[in-house]
Amino acid sequence: MHYELSTLSNGLRVITDAMPDVRSVALGVWADAGTRDEHPNEAGAAHFLEHLLFKGSDEVSAQQIAESFDAVGGRSNAFTSKEQTCYWARLRDEDLPLGLDILAEMVRRPAFRQGEIDSEKHVVLEEINMNEDDPTDVAYEEFAQALWKNHALERPVLGTRSSISGMTRDDIHGFWSRRYHAGATVLAVAGRVDHAALVHQAEKHFGDWHTGDSTHQYAAATIVPRVGVRHRDTEQTHLVIGGEGLKSGDDRRFAFGLLNHVLGGGMSSRLFREIREQRGLAYAVYSFKFPYADSGGYGVYVGTTPSQVDQVLHLIGDEIKKLVADGVTAEELDRAKGHVQGSLALGEEDPNSRMIRVGRQEIGGLEHLSLDETLKRFEAITLSEVHAVAGDLLTGPQVIGATGPHDATDLEPFVA
Questions:
Q1: pLDDT in the model for residue 1
Q2: HSE of 214 in the Cβ direction (CA atoms, 13 Å)?
Q3: Which residue of 219, 246, 250, 307 shows the fewest CB atoms closer than 10 Å?
Q4: With contact defined as beta carbons under 8 Å apart, do 290 and 256 qualify?
Q5: CATH fold for the domain made of 4-206
Q6: pLDDT digits 0-9 by tens, 181-200
Q7: 50 in active site
Q8: Would you kindly state where each structural domain of the chain is located, as residue ranges?
Q9: Cα separation, 342 vs 345, whole angstroms
């Protein structure tokens, strides 16, 4: 086993990935709570809560949290997704007890002081403003809302200006009390760590924490051709076109990962070569995928001059059709395998990457695979498996999210 896993009596899970030759640790407290779990009055609460927990508890202030990490050369932050929230720290191995003490205090006993809630609203609103000023972010948000309209995954992680402005202390406290508890939490550590000692410390910090309901409302997504456009007089049109991808635990994810690399995952990919290198129609063009528990997405991003949009979308469509009709070549498959395997191997040298891997797998109920096991899965993928997954996924309904000097009617022919 490349990891050790223990479960406290209250349901909190402790997972470690030991790296005895390093002198640091990456620590993550994972909450099984994301945007998809919000009630209508809580839109943006998962992310807002991420901000507020760094304001501290009745015992520890925000300044004390910052000073404690600064005093040992550590770093701490958090991130929120549609499905989980992670509070993390990077520290020397000998400072792990300090990091655990601070994160446990933040997560378990937030103060929710009204003045700090009011001031942090302005910070989150500025974050929304910052994203609104980035046309790429806007195109991605339009894509997500078009892809998952009327589904829990449609909701923006940041919330909206109106939802954040109107959010009350009771709203935020209600989300925290409902979704944050021992049974919905994973403590993940990678680096120079002793598992038994960490379990003992976890029992001290979390052992008396209550447990609760950690279920989610999962549902199949209904994808139909749709276009979402934020009309702006920009120098470039920013486009995201794609459709439904794979769920997070789907066995085809290894073949799909290789297919994604061939399509637009690097400088040797088909889209990069065709659209940027040969035709000079874009500076940035790439494909991507993101899996969730009950749905997933795949897509292609490109930024191009507005007058070139039709040509670029035709080229993207042509490359997708070729993959569906003919699959990938043996040379492309070997190159994709080498890229993915090399990237994974390099990531294994970083404690933070390994903490995120084991933490995300455990909180998401996914299979734990070692590096060698993962490399074998990729190596075993055949040309026919990649061809099959292209036919399964790339032939479904597509949607477009865009920012630029266009209306939806300009782009609808490309998803009809």
A1: 65
A2: 22
A3: 307
A4: no
A5: Cytochrome Bc1 Complex; Chain A, domain 1 (3.30.830)
A6: 999 999 999 999 999 999 99
A7: yes
A8: 4-206, 226-414
A9: 5
Structure-block tokens of residue 43: 């839109």
Cα 416 to Cα 406: distance, rounded to the nearest angstrom: 17
117, containing H or E segment: helix 114-132
Point out the catalytic residue in the list 4, 38, 42, 50: 50
pLDDT average, residue stretch 230-253: 96
The structure's pTM equals 0.95
């040992």: which residue's tokens? 72
CA distance 138 to 128: 10
How far, in Å, CA of 179 to CA of 183, rounded? 10
Q: Please classify residue 177 by burial: count the beta carbons closer than 10 Å to its beta carbon, then call 0-12 exposed, 13-18 middle and 19+ buried.
A: exposed
Q: Is 190 helix (H, G, I), strand (E, B) or coil?
A: strand
User: Can you say whether the dihedral through the CA atoms of 318, 323, 326, 331 is positive or negative?
Assistant: positive
pLDDT digits (tens, 9 = 90+) for 84-105: 999 999 999 999 999 999 999 9
β-strand partners of 186: 13, 30
Whole-number Å distance between alpha carbons of 303 and 308: 10
- Contact by Cβ (8 Å): 75, 24: no
Strands 85-92 and 24-31, bridge-based pairing? antiparallel
Rounded CA gap, 30 and 11, in Å?
13
Do the domains at 4-206 and 226-414 have one common CATH topology?
yes
C-alpha angle 198/202/203, rounded to 5°? 120
What residue type is assigned to position 40 of the chain?
A: P
Check residue 56 and give left, alpha or beta (phi > 0: left; psi -120 to 50: alpha).
left
CATH of 226-414, one of 3.30.830.10, 3.40.1620.10, 1.10.510.10, 3.40.50.880: 3.30.830.10
User: How far is it, in rounded angstroms, from Cα 130 to Cα 111?
Assistant: 27
Distances from the Cα of 41 to the Cα of 37, 78, 120, 155, 170, angstroms: 11, 23, 18, 13, 10
The residues pairing with 403 across neighbouring beta strands, listed in sequence order, are: 230, 238
Cβ pair 282, 238 in contact under 8 A: no
Q: What share of the chain is helix, strand, coil (3-state, %, to 5)?
A: 50, 20, 30
Q: What is the pLDDT of residue 347?
A: 86
DSSP class of 304: E
- Rounded Cα distance, 389 and 244, in Å: 12
